[in-house]
């Protein structure tokens, strides 16, 4: 038996899967993504309840005696600038002030060691109110932001620009900081003692 002659076939193309076929990976991924989006749209939306203490941006819960949440660096800068914390707060707000310290801030001061022992001794003053926080060893800045969001009755005292930026995003929470050796409060119209 002789060999069969193989002739080349002209104008025959290879069979290729269509790019829109579901077996192609990218198309399958897009289809799954589309299904997820539709499922998310079908879920009921969760809208946060508005804070009843706010009258537009004005916080009606703030009033004398003011409770001031104090940050670690605020204490350090107060000591560096030789400012008495409570007296300077009262000069700024022209009312009675109660400085408050959370457990996280106290823990941060203790971790800083001997260099900041004066700040730690100042924080343990009986005039400072100690506020227990239910966060287990979290970052002090996160703790302060969470407390300010949750209660909305505090003024947050800090010299940290990043934390001040985060506090500005929470409506109705004023921020106290040190500028030109005096305490200043932003976003608080009734602080007449604060330098402009």
How big a fraction of the residues is strand?
A: 15-25%
Q: How many helical stretches?
A: 7
Return Rg in Å.
31 Å
Mean pLDDT: 89
Largest sheet, strands/sense/barrel:
6 strands, mixed
**Helix percentage range:** 25-40%
Distance between the amino and carboxyl termini: 108 Å
Which term fits the overall shape? elongated
Question: How many β-strand runs?
Answer: 8
Label the structural class: alpha/beta
Unreliable runs, pLDDT <50, ≥5 residues?
A: none
Question: Main sheet: which strands, in order across?
Answer: 5-4-3-6-7-8
Task: List the helices and strands in order.
Answer: HEEEHHEHHEHEHEE
Describe, in plain words, how this protein is organized in 3D:
This protein is α/β, with parallel strands linked by helices. 37% of the residues lie in helices and 16% in strands. It has helices at residues 25-42, 72-80, 85-93, 103-111, 117-123, 140-151, 161-168; strands at residues 54-55, 58-59, 66-70, 97-102, 129-131, 154-157, 175-179, 182-186. The protein has a 6-stranded mixed β-sheet, with helices on both faces. It is elongated and about 115 Å long.
Defining traits:
single chain; 196 residues; alpha/beta; 6-stranded mixed sheet; two-stranded antiparallel ribbon; 7 helices; 16% strand; elongated
Report a brief summary of the structure.
The protein is of the alpha/beta class and 196 residues long. The protein is built from seven helices and eight strands, in the order αβββααβααβαβαββ.
Q: Which secondary structure elements does this structure contain, and how are they paired or packed?
A:
Elements: H1 25-42, E1 54-55, E2 58-59, E3 66-70, H2 72-80, H3 85-93, E4 97-102, H4 103-111, H5 117-123, E5 129-131, H6 140-151, E6 154-157, H7 161-168, E7 175-179, E8 182-186
Parallel strand pairs: 3-4, 3-6, 4-5, 6-7
Antiparallel strand pairs: 1-2, 7-8
Helix pairs in contact: 2-5
């Amino acid at each position: 038996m002789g060999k069969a002659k193989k002739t080349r076939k002209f104008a025959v193309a290879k069979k290729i899967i269509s790019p829109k076929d579901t077996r192609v990976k990218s198309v399958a991924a897009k289809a799954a993504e589309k299904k997820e989006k539709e499922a998310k749209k079908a879920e009921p939306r969760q809208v946060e309840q508005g804070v009843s203490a706010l009258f537009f941006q004005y916080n009606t819960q703030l009033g004398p005696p003011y409770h001031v949440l104090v940050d670690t660096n605020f204490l350090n800068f107060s000591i560096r600038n030789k400012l008495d914390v409570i007296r300077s707060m009262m000069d700024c707000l022209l009312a009675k002030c109660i400085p408050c310290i959370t457990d996280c801030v106290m823990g941060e001061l203790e971790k800083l060691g001997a260099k900041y022992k004066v700040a730690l001794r100042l924080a343990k003053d009986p005039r400072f109110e100690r506020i227990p926080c239910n966060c287990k060893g979290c970052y002090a800045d996160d703790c302060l932001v969470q407390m300010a969001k949750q209660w909305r009755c505090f003024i947050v005292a800090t010299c940290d620009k990043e934390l001040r930026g985060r506090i500005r995003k929470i409506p109705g929470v004023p921020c106290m900081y040190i500028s030109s050796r005096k305490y200043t409060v932003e976003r608080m119209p009734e602080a007449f003692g604060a330098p402009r």
